[in-house]
Amino acid sequence: MSNRPLDQLEATIAARQAAGDADSSYTAKLLAGGVEKIGRKIVEEAAEVVEAAGEPGEPGREHTIAEAGDVLYHLMVLLAHRQIKLSDVESELARRFGMSGLEEKASRSK
Ligand SMILES: N=c1c2ncn([C@@H]3O[C@H](COP(=O)(O)OP(=O)(O)OP(=O)(O)O)[C@@H](O)[C@H]3O)c2ncn1[C@@H]1O[C@H](COP(=O)(O)O)[C@@H](O)[C@H]1O
């Protein structure tokens, strides 16, 4: 098993999903709320990371790291809810390598 923190977090989320004990696990509680509850948290945390990124200096940088952690965690819970693996998202990102974001946007409007 990989010791990459994102892989370890994915495994923990999967274990909480399997146990389904919303009384002892925040992850299980979120999962029980479905797309609506998880999505609300992602939107909330996304706004917080953007706000933190606008804060100056090292405190702002540290705050941004903490809020980015919250966004990634909640996004991973949403992926687990939809039975999507981190590797599925990585494959999608790898597929885009070498493709300019501007070119991709232009190809969509053709
Ligand atoms: N990485 C995280 C993580 N990041 C953030 N959070 C939680 O996300 C919530 C952030 O929401 P807020 O700051 O808005 O706090 P809140 O107001 O209490 O949240 P709400 O009740 O409004 O949803 C807090 O409760 C945090 O504790 C996380 N909860 C869990 N994990 C990971 O998931 C693992 C399993 O956690 P449990 O499922 O709780 O056992 C943990 O060991 C961690 O590794």
TrEMBL record:
UniProt keyword terms in alphabetical order: Amino-acid biosynthesis, ATP-binding, Cytoplasm, Histidine biosynthesis, Hydrolase, Nucleotide-binding
EC number: 3.6.1.31
GO cellular component: cytoplasm
Highest rank taxon of the organism: Bacteria
Alphabetical list of InterPro entries matching this protein: HisE, PRib-ATP_PPHydrolase-like
GO biological process: L-histidine biosynthetic process
GO terms assigned for molecular function: ATP binding; phosphoribosyl-ATP diphosphatase activity
Catalytic activity: 1-(5-phospho-beta-D-ribosyl)-ATP + H2O = 1-(5-phospho-beta-D-ribosyl)-5'-AMP + diphosphate + H(+)
Pfam families assigned to the protein according to its UniProt record, in alphabetical order: PRA-PH
Family: Belongs to the PRA-PH family.
PANTHER family for the chain: HISTIDINE BIOSYNTHESIS BIFUNCTIONAL PROTEIN, HISTIDINE BIOSYNTHESIS BIFUNCTIONAL PROTEIN HISIE
Name used for this protein in its record: Phosphoribosyl-ATP pyrophosphatase
Organism of origin: Aeoliella straminimaris
